[in-house]
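Input record (one chain):
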Amino acid sequence: MQPEPKRRRGRQPKPKPEGSSRPVSILNREVDMAAIAAYVPPIRNLAKPVAIIPTKKVSTDPNKTRYSDKELAEFRTIIIKKIDEAKKELANLQAILFNPNEHGTDDTASSFKMMEDGSDTQAKEEAGQLAARQRKFIEQLENALVRIENKTYGICRVTGKLIPAERLRAVPHTTQSIEAKMQQYRD
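The corresponding structure, as predicted from the sequence alone:
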């Protein structure tokens, strides 16, 4: 006579439907991998290239040396909008920098106050770095406006060729074409 098999405590496994996968033992538990696969979304292939769909048809005349006044006006509105957004962000960062300690740690124990002051100092340093970066971004956008007024906007400073309009819409302060930027990283 054989001893009766031990029964596990807790939930009993559900009966498996016909055609299910073989159970796998993970951490001493039987796991149906097909059931797990049904709940896990498939991993997207991130290596596929993403297509860039141009928003407006731009003539690709190889003899074109500069953008038309109409195109420059479009770029000017994009840049002005970006400058406004950047100035608002800079104002927020400067408010963080120049506001006194608003949490009021003056009446707390000195050991807690030191930790609080340290984190405040770090937050202000980070805000200062972000503010400096934002100022530089605003300066680059303002320089782009000057190039629009001079009608030299969109001309690569390395190759002398026209920068594609799609790139200028995405990065309006750029002064280099993609090929010049790639060459910069190769050197």
